[in-house]
Design brief:
6-stranded mixed sheet, 28% strand, binds adenosine-5'-triphosphate
Length: 313
Amino acid sequence: MTGDAVIDVRGLVKRFGAKTVVDGFSIRVARGQIYGFLGPNGSGKTTTIRMLCGLLTPDAGEGTCLGLDIRRQSAAIKRQVGYMTQKFSFWEDLSIAENLDFVARMYGLPDRRQKVVAALERLGLGNRRAQLAGELSGGWKQRLALAACILHEPKLLLLDEPTAGVDPKARREFWDEIHRLAAEGLTVLVSTHYMDEAERCHAIAYLAYGRLMTQGSVEEVIATSGLVTYEVGARGAGGADLGHVAASLRDRPGVEMVAAFGARLHVSGGDGAELEEALRPWAADSGLLVRRTEPTLEDVFIHLMNRSTDNFA
Ligand SMILES: Nc1ncnc2c1ncn2[C@@H]1O[C@H](COP(=O)(O)OP(=O)(O)OP(=O)(O)O)[C@@H](O)[C@H]1O
C-alpha cells in the first residue's frame, strides 16, 4: 500500500463486448475519506466501484484495495468490504431484526445476536426492530441496508446511489451517519446524482462515458474546471424579461450554457473573453445586473459532460 491509501489503482479498463465502459481509471483514496462518484447514467460508476473491490476483474490496469491486489486477492478484499447496491434486496416479510440476523448468519459472524443489537442501536432501528422490511419508508429501508452493510465491521464501504428517492431529512441523517463512520476510520466510496451530497464528500471523481474527467475536493474541481460564469438578473424592482435574454444568449459564440436559478440566469463558457463579448450588450442594459460569479458544481459537471465525447453511441 502506498502511504495511507486504502485504494490505489492505475489504468483500470473494463470492456463489455466491443464497448469500453471504463477507460484508464486511476485513483488514490486515503483512509477515512468519503469519496463521491458522479457522472451521467451509464458513465461507468458502478463498474468502477465493482472493480475496486474485486467484484469485477479489470481487462487492464492494476492496483491495491486495503493493501491487497485487486486481481489476485479479490476474495480477501470482499471480506473487508460492505457493499450497498442500488436495489433494495431484503426479505419484505421478515422484520428488520430478522433480516439483520439472517445477514449475520450468512457471514457466519461470531457474537451474532450482540452484533445485530449493536447495528440496530447504531442506526436508530431499535424501536422498529419488529417492523416488517416491506412496510418501511424509503429512508428507513436505506438505514436497514446500511446496518446490514456494517454488521461484519468492514474497512471499506461502497454505497451505490444509497439515497435515491429518499426525502431530504432522511438523506441528511443518512449522511450524518456516513460521516460518523468515516470519522471512526471507515473509508467510503459513494455514487450519487445529488449535488448537495457531492458537497458533503471529502473528494469527488466525475466520470463521463467511462473516462475520469476530474477529481479532487469540490473547491479544486471548481477551480480547475476553467469554466467562467456570469450571473444575470434584473436591476432594482423592474421586471426584466430574462426568458428573452436567455433565448438570445444561447445562440451567441462563447455561451455554452444558460441556466435559470429563480430570478437569475447563470451564463457560462470555457472562453472568458468570448463570453464577456457575448454579454456586453446585456451588461450595457440599465435594467440588468451582469456580474461575474463562481460556477456551481452542477455548472462544472454539465460543462464537463458537454466537452466529453460519447464513445458509447
Ligand atoms: N454486465 C454487463 N454487461 C454488459 N454491459 C454492461 C454490464 N454492466 C454494465 N454495462 C454497461 O456499462 C455501462 C456503464 O454502466 P454502469 O452501471 O457502470 O454505469 P453507472 O455510471 O453506474 O450508471 P447509473 O448512474 O445509471 O447507475 C453502461 O452502458 C451499461 O449498460
